[in-house]
UniProtKB/TrEMBL annotation:
This is UDP-glucose 4-epimerase. It comes from Thioalkalivibrio nitratireducens (strain DSM 14787 / UNIQEM 213 / ALEN2). InterPro entries: Epimerase_deHydtase (IPR001509), NAD(P)-bd_dom_sf (IPR036291), UDP_G4E (IPR005886). It catalyses: UDP-alpha-D-glucose = UDP-alpha-D-galactose. Its EC number is 5.1.3.2. It is an enzyme of class 5 (isomerase). GO terms for molecular function: UDP-glucose 4-epimerase activity. Homodimer. Pathway: Carbohydrate metabolism; galactose metabolism. Keywords: Carbohydrate metabolism, Isomerase, NAD. One of its GO terms (biological process) is galactose catabolic process via UDP-galactose, Leloir pathway. It holds the Pfam family Epimerase. Its cofactor is NAD(+).
Length: 327
């Protein structure tokens, strides 16, 4: 089966492409390479293009006639979205609208969408369940929520069936070491800790040690990127099998504090990691953890690497090999 993968040159998209190829499908990456890397596209063709370029997108969809789409392409920095909301609404919301219109026009009826726990906003109860109110506190989360809403309406009106997967903190790397996490600029905790272990940065800043959590630092639910990729394949099977549109959390159900992640990174790397306490980062909720019970029920999804140790070991193997994505 041919699957159009928007954002297939990005971190999670590239891992999904590998999983698709392993399952015998052809992932066709559509990516403008603004944040992704050409070198991460290894399991199918790369069609360069922007979601907002309707002509180009039409041509690619007409050429490959995909049976389904995995839609990863998005800008995803919370801080940047606060400073430049127009970018986020143009790229994420308007871009997705163009994509959905093209898919409907070409009779593509199945879509798996990269949504996020950022659509919930500040948690009222933890762990977060899918029926928690969605009140995003930044334009990034708002842009993803608008896309979920569009998917619902497109489903009702045009028969586009979709599964929105709300990721918690994606981390780790391909266990074979072929691809890994790489952003430019890098803002995520795990790669920053490993860069500090490698001496590529002097230290890691811990954004706040005075939260109302056991050790004072923020708690997040880290989920291995290949477990996310597996969930996308299951989602595809679910939709092809006639499953109704829905949305699911993808998390491990366990929370780890920033200090715990840094300690585990020291243990796994066997290297010192210097840190300093810095002010809180605006927009960081103290705790974000998921219940992923529905993903287990609906998809039969079972994370294969639920332990923080495996996430860090795989990420470390990739980082220390100097594997650097490039365009
Ligand atoms: N952190 C530090 N120092 C750093 C980097 C991060 O202390 O140098 C802390 C953050 O404050 C946070 C935790 O480590 O408490 C994790 O931060 P990340 O930046 O790795 O991840 P986020 O939780 O901010 O982001 C994730 C996803 C986003 C999503 C967001 C929802 O990457 O896409 O959760 O809040 F929007």
């Amino acid at each position: 089966m041919q699957v159009l993968v928007t954002g297939g040159a990005g971190y999670i998209g590239s891992h999904a492409c590998k999983a698709l190829a392993r399952a015998g499908h052809l992932p066709v990456t559509y990516d403008n390479l603004s944040r992704g890397f050409r070198s991460a596209v290894r399991w199918g063709p790369l069609e360069e293009g922007d979601l907002n370029d309707r002509k180009r997108l039409e041509a690619v969809v007409a050429r490959y006639r995909p049976e389904a789409v995995m839609h990863f392409a998005a800008l995803s920095y919370v801080g940047e979205s606060v400073a430049e909301p127009a970018l986020y609404y143009r790229n994420n919301v308007a871009g997705s609208l163009t994509l959905l219109e093209v898919l409907v026009r070409h009779g593509v009826h199945h879509l798996v969408f990269s949504s996020t726990c950022a659509t919930y906003g500040n948690p009222r109860q933890l762990p977060l369940r899918e029926d928690h109110p969605q009140e995003p506190i930044n334009p990034y989360g708002a842009s993803k929520l608008m896309i979920e809403r569009m998917l619902r309406d497109f489903g009702a009106a045009y028969g586009l069936r979709s599964l929105s997967l709300r990721y918690f903190n994606a981390a780790g790397a391909d266990p074979d070491g072929e691809i890994g996490e790489m952003h430019d600029p890098e803002t995520h905790l795990v790669p920053i800790a490993l860069q500090a272990a490698l001496g590529q940065r002097e230290k890691i800043q811990v954004f706040g040690d005075d939260y109302d959590t056991p050790d004072g630092s923020c708690i997040r639910d880290y989920i291995h990127v290949t477990d996310l990729a597996d969930a996308h394949l299951l989602a595809l099977d679910y939709l092809r099998g006639g499953g109704a549109s829905t949305h699911l959390n993808l998390g491990s159900g366990h929370g780890h504090s920033v200090f715990e992640v840094i300690d585990e990174a020291r243990r796994v790397t066997g290297r010192p990691i210097a840190m300093e306490i810095a002010p809180r980062r605006p927009g960081d909720p103290p705790v974000l953890t998921a219940t992923a019970a529905r993903a287990r029920e609906v998809l039969g999804w079972q994370p294969r690497h639920p332990e923080l140790a495996a996430i860090l070991e795989h990420a470390w193997a990739w980082h220390k090999n100097g594997s650097r994505a490039s365009n």
